[in-house]
Amino acid sequence: xxxxxxxxxxxxxxxxxxxxxxxxxxxxxxxxxxxxxxxxxxxxxxxxxxxxxxxxxxxxxxxxxxxxxxxxxxxxxxxxxxxxxxxxxxxxxxxxxxxxxxxxxxxxxxxxxxxxxxxxxxxxxxxxxxxxxxxxxxxxxxxxxxxxxxxxxxxxxxxxxxxxxxxxxxxxxxxxxxxxxxxxxxxxxxxxxxxxxxxxxxxxxxxxxxxxxxxxxxxxxxxxxxxxxxxxxxxxxxxxxxxxxxxxxxxxxxxxxxxxxxxxxxxxxxxxxxxxxxxxxxxxxxxxxxxxxxxxxxxxxxxxxxxxxxxxxxxxxxxxxxxxxxxxxxxxxxxxxxxxxxxxxxxxxxxxxxxxxxxxxxxxxxxxxxxxxxxxxxxxxxxxxxxxxxxxxxxxxxxxxxxxxxxxxxxxxxxxxxxxxxxxxxxxxxxxxxxxxxxxxxxxxxxxxxxxxxxxxxxxxxxxxxxxxxxxxxxxxxxxxxxxxxxxxxxxxxxxxxxxxxxxxxxxxxxxxx
Amino acid sequence: xxxxxxxxxxxxxxxxxxxxxxxxxxxxxxxxxxxxxxxxxxxxxxxxxxxxxxxxxxxxxxxxxxxxxxxxxxxxxxxxxxxxxxxxxxxxxxxxxxxxxxxxxxxxxxxxxxxxxxxxxxxxxxxxxxxxxxxxxxxxxxxxxxxxxxxxxxxxxxxxxxxxxxxxxxxxxxxxxxxxxxxxxxxxxxxxxxxxxxxxxxxxxxxxxxxxxxxxxxxxxxxxxxxxxxxxxxxxxxxxxxxxxxxxxxxxxxxxxxxxxxxxxxxxxxxxxxxxxxxxxxxxxxxxxxxxxxxxxxxxxxxxxxxxxxxxxxxxxxxxxxxxx
Lengths: 514, 325
Known about the structure:
The structure holds two protein chains of two kinds. By secondary structure, chain A is an alpha/beta fold. Chain A is built from 20 helices and 22 strands. In chain A, α15 (about 375-390) packs across α16 (about 405-420). The N and C termini of chain A lie far apart (about 55 Å).
């Protein structure tokens, strides 16, 4: 905010965000956020997962209405009613998640709502393809307009998303983690495109976790933490360290748990190969927390799902306590003592319309039954014990989980697994979309579990989390284990370097001979 | 009050009682008589038995359009064995039920293991089985043996046997669905199938069982119907699938699964039965029945959306957010 005032006079403010607040049941997603973006500016938005970046952008695109505050577009207050309205106003967004129809062609996807047609509504394919070719050329993409989107790599799909957003010549373009699933050369092309847009006067909101990228592309950087605005800085006046300090709470860095690992192999995978990963071999010890680091799409979730029997493995073997395992489905995995807390809590972990107690008991109904007859009071009793144990904040155990905050929801899923008491628990992004307080509580729960002898495989994209929790780190890249790192000797930078392929795998040989 | 109305079993029971009171006052000599009520119950007993199975399927997030055809086929097959093969009632009934179970097994296997959409699978099966039913019964098999008809035509405590059988079926399945471990899992499957799989629930096996049960109950209903009429018709049970699904949804099930109780299935058919009965008494044209039932269904589901939104959110905002997520 320091020298914003004097700059303000020189440049035209495209969008002003004034005192925006938004609450969801159980969470205050944004409180009193003020920031603006100049015409032709690349404005980066930084913050941890759950800091409110996406919520803020969803307000700009009309998906949410703010509870308080207003938005000024070209100095005039606007109420953005929905995404179509946002597009009319010249605001386009590329979401983190894909919003393409895989069975349609590239051209049809890009021009979904604005395909050239004659007066009877028949689509002019020739013109459509011509327009698509032109647009793809500006992005340096050599893709035919009539290719089906499902046949493209995820990186190319991301570029199609961007092309789709650009097809409307937006005045404001929002990019939410645009480089999460694209290669470095594709990133370079993207940056070139952004520079060109900037010259034409387009304002770009750029959301990313990758600090190097932000400092490469952004003019100014704003930081959000737990829904609160922390300040805006011009690139020259700040540093990566300062931004990270504003984003992260210090407690996170302090707590590094001591290893509880014992010298006893609980689980071993040998040359495991499946869709999205190959030749994955590793061992885990009793009471150990083994982290799988890597970029999104590196194949970590795929490995976990194969071990758990949710997806088939083509090749390789796994063993538990020295005994070979054949696992065809999750219920067999659970019987063998393996648990899996899935990555997408709402889609795969929870029964959103059901009560807390029903969710907690989902895997262990027989614990609440005598000769197959369920005693509902027993369910409540068990659920009560676990809500107390994990500190789940709710009015009663009969409350529906869709009324809980992300952190409490995740604890409900954890409670389900604690009840099943697996000897190997795989947790996939256990603190995704969870506020900082609940995050620390979940760390403690996992640590306590490990202390009690449960072996934990942690899949996480948050490096501080990996450094806090894990005993050992396997870095995956392109479906293979790139290297093994020791927590005590490694740094975030080193992990990232292996994950993105800057360092090559010198240590893998050592790993395989183990 | 609002809380109570949210509970579909409660609001539906109250509606039924209210309608019955109004009808009793309006037609004191026709509606509240023993004959009328017992006829009403007899008429809805066949639908109710089928509705119980349909309710279980809907709880698990599926449904079965072939039940009406199974009713005709199973009744027809049993009648065929009795009339043309001279079989004893018991083996004929068992073979009929086995055939119904087989249809369910096929439906369940193809839906759960081959991943065919239940709508398409059971729609196809509806046509296939209807064809088979018409083939077997021809223009209808009449004059079924009395020792078979006794099954659907006898009375106990002045009430016809199909009504008793309906009550027994509802009672057994109500207990099972509300208290038994296996049946409880259907709520999880309907609530979130992916999460159910990852929680170690054997979703495929349970889905197959649900289809088999539904078909078996439809088979039972078919045999009961044939025995009550003393005849089997290839066309019986036509349109039953949609009527039963209507009743079950009125009774608190949701097409997206995870909701509903067996008692709700009974209340749904009772409600439809009472409304139809009153319209007959009032000499309203039969066409109006379908129109009125359609309106009632939309109203009931609409009220659900209005009542079940999270507390503190206006209906307008809620509907707005619905379309986004």
